[in-house]
C-alpha cells in the first residue's frame, strides 16, 4: 500500500510538471512613496509552465571584434555586438536552443536592470495596419541585447527605440528598464509602434498580459518616449479611442481584456489596498492604496503567491479563474532599488525558483560576479543537482494537497524569508560600506553571501522533499506534514534577536581581505535563517 501511494504521488507529480501553457506573467511596480522602507520595487512572475527549467548566471564583461553579431537562434534577429559588453546577470531558460535565451531579469555593472517581459497583443486592426516583424525584437532577446550595452535606464529605453525603428518588433510586450533614479514602463504594441513612460514615485501598478497605459503626452519628452505618429496612426487606421476625453493608448491598440487578465488586475489592485470593481470598464494602470498603508517587500512576495484567498474567485470555487499565484510559475522575482545603494551596486534581487507559493525568495545584489553552482546546472529534465528542480520538485509535491502537504512547507519558507528580511538592513550597511572602499571587495562579499544563502536554502529544500515523500509513503492522513527544520524557528520564536550578516569591517590589505572574507563567510553561515544562530 505504501509503495502504491508513493507511486501515485510520483505519477501525479510528473503529470503536474509536464503541464505547459502560453506565456502569462504578472508585473508589479511600487513607487518609493508607497513602500515601507522607501525603496522602489519592480517585480514579475514568469508564468509559462511547471516544467520549464531556469538558470541564474553572470555574464562576464566581454570584448567583441567588429562585425560580430548577437543572433536569435529561433527568429534570425541579429544586432551588432558592442566592442565591450558590460557584465550582467540573467535568468535564462536552460534549453536556449528550444526557443532562445529568455533572460527575464538581470542587472548590469552600471546598476541598470531589465525585467522582460509581460507578453501582450495588439488588436487585429492594429496588427493589420502595422504587422509584427518575423525577425524583429522579441522577449527572448531583450535582456541580453539591452544590458550589455547601456549605462542608465534612459539609455536602455533609447536603445530599445532605436532597435524598434530599425528592426521592428516580433511581438507585443510590456517590460521595465530601471536604475536607482528612474523606472521606465514600456509597451510595444505593433511592429513599429510603442510607448514608454517614466513611472513617478507616488504610484503603484499591477499589470497582467495586456496593455494598460492610458494617456500618452507626445509633447512631454521628460516623462514619455513614444512613436511620433502613435496618435495619428491610430486615427488613420480606425483604432483611435479616448477615455475621459483623452487619447488612451491601451484602448486604441490593445485587444479586448480577457477574463484571465481581468482576474489579475482586479485581484492585484484589491490585494494592495485599492478597491476596484471586477466589472470596471477600464482599469487604470496606476493607482494608490485607499487606506494609505505602505507596502513591504513581503507584501509583494505574498501578492505573487496570491490565489484570491478570502474571495469568491478562487480556483477551488471556479476553475476558470486565473490567479496571480499559479503552479505555472517557472520563477518569480522582486527588485528593490534603495537610495543608499551606490549606482554600481544596482539593487537587490529577491528570486524564487518554481511556484512562489511553496518556494522561497532568496536575495542577491546586482554586483555579484558568480552564482551558486546549482543555479548553473543545465538540466532540462529533473536533476537533483539543479536549483530549479530542487525547489520546483518540493513545491510540486506540496501543491498536490495544500492542507496536508503544503501548509508545513509554506510555513517554514515564510519564517525563513522573514529572517532574511530582518537581517537585510544590517547586510545593506555592510555592503554599502564595502562599496565605498573597494567595489571588488564588495562584489566578492556579496557573491559569497548570496551563494551561502542559496546553498543553505537548497539543503533545506532537499531535506523537506525527502521528509515529505517519506510522510506520504507512510500514508498519514490525520496530521499535516511538519518539516523537522521548523523546530529551529519554533524553539526561538519568542526572542527577537537577529544575528548580523557580518560584523567584519572591510580590510585594506591583502591579508586583511582574506581574513575578512573568511570571517564574513562564517558569519553568513551563522546568519542563514535555517541555522540555530539565526533563529534566535
TrEMBL record:
Catalytically driven reaction(s): an L-aminoacyl-L-amino acid + H2O = 2 an L-alpha-amino acid
PROSITE patterns on file: PROKAR_LIPOPROTEIN
GO molecular function, one term: cysteine-type exopeptidase activity
Residues covered by region (Disordered): 492-536
InterPro entries found in the cross-reference section: C69_dipept_A-like (IPR047804), Peptidase_C69 (IPR005322)
Listed Low complexity bias regions: 497-536
Signal peptide (residue range): 1-24
Gene3D superfamilies (alphabetical): Penicillin V Acylase, Chain A
Pfam family name, one: Peptidase_C69
Top class in the EC scheme: hydrolase
UniProt keyword annotations, A-Z: Dipeptidase, Hydrolase, Protease, Signal
One GO term (biological process): proteolysis
EC annotation from Swiss-Prot or TrEMBL: 3.4.-.-
Similarity-based family: Belongs to the peptidase C69 family.
Full protein name: Dipeptidase
